């Protein structure tokens, strides 16, 4: 028996395992549900193990399936990276960065020109997503996510501290002044599904855990909540230093200087198969260098006694 399982079956297994659905895998790969089911069955028979539990029309990876998925993803990523590098001109290296939208828009993109000046032969491909890296549709060289996280098959390191503070437009603040946390009761608070407990955590640390805002607006992504704050629709719990440039430019203001709530750090995440790549290492070092040049908090005069320690982050 060959030691190489059917490669097409591996590709289908990876999609079905990542999406936790035969139907979704079929849609992604443009095949039928029956074709996916047949390939998975053939792979299980070839391996002599069960990769999925099937119950009530749903599928779930077995423990063996989870372990196999990690190794298969590493192998497919290695093939994809090798192919990408092979197709690049000899003097050019393509680096795929997968970042959350807010990080990409407000912190990474304004700084990429610095990296490009030092590495002009590196072609950057920036992809944005809020999904966990295990559920991404395409491989990456470096991902940027808030951590710490459970990222088997990868190496990761924190490189940027983040804190939260209420931010709003100058025009909104002029109409409805905010001199204390209690004044937020007359405002619309802007919520993001990706940070569901952020406001309650901040209000608790500010001493007003029972505060009821005048209204609430909810968004599926934080980048939309931040844009709503820019448009004067309400008060966002702004991440700093993500939104530091918006504060520095006067587009947003921080009416309250405390509590400044530290939350989860941003981490760079690299597949183990790419850990020896010198270009990947250069980009990770650059991220750390850039973050070291940031001011950790927005307002002058803040001291350690004014910085609250957060609850365990969501």
Automatic annotation (TrEMBL):
Report the superkingdom from the record.
Bacteria
GO molecular function per UniProt: DNA-binding transcription factor activity; sequence-specific DNA binding
Which Pfam families does the protein's record reference?
A: HTH_1, LysR_substrate
Question: Quick check: keyword Transcription regulation in the entry?
Answer: yes
InterPro entries hit by this protein: LysR-type_TF_proteobact-type, LysR_HTH_N, LysR_subst-bd, WH-like_DNA-bd_sf, WH_DNA-bd_sf
Glycoprotein keyword on record = no
Q: Which GO terms describe its biological process?
A: DNA-templated transcription
Coiled coil spans: none
The entry's keywords: DNA-binding, Transcription, Transcription regulation
What name does the UniProt record give this protein? Transcriptional regulator GcvA
What family is reported? Belongs to the LysR transcriptional regulatory family.
Q: Which PANTHER family match?
A: HTH-TYPE TRANSCRIPTIONAL REGULATOR, HTH-TYPE TRANSCRIPTIONAL REGULATOR TRPI
- Where the record annotates domain HTH lysR-type, the positions are 5-62
